[in-house]
Amino acid sequence: PTIHVTRRDGRQEAVEATSGQSLKDALKGAGIDEILGLCGGFASCGTCHVHVAEDWLARLEPVRENEAELLGYSDWREANSRLACQIPFTEALDGIVVTVAPED
Ligand code: FES
Hints:
Layout: E1 2-6, E2 12-16, H1 23-29, E3 49-52, H2 54-57, H3 65-71, E4 81-83, E5 96-100
Parallel strand pairs: 1-5
Antiparallel strand pairs: 1-2, 3-4, 3-5
FE2/S2 (inorganic) cluster (FES) binds at residues 24, 37-39, 41, 43-48, 83, 85.
């Protein structure tokens, strides 16, 4: 399964992911270094912020309260903002398209 990611410098890459990983771990593990994931995936640092392509957004679990709160601190929050650590990667998300949000 693949994640299509646009990096902060505009480069587009396709990275491999495994079901059961978080989107954050898949991106980080593939060398997308600007996904810092400083809190280790506990929705408390905001450094795994991505923008999810519209047609994929509805396929994700809804945003939970702590995720929404943290996203609220970002200057780059959009309607399609998510924390990648809060998205469990599954086969159903094969082909998902995301963009790494600019740095806060
Ligand atoms: Fe810290 Fe996602 S890794 S909020």
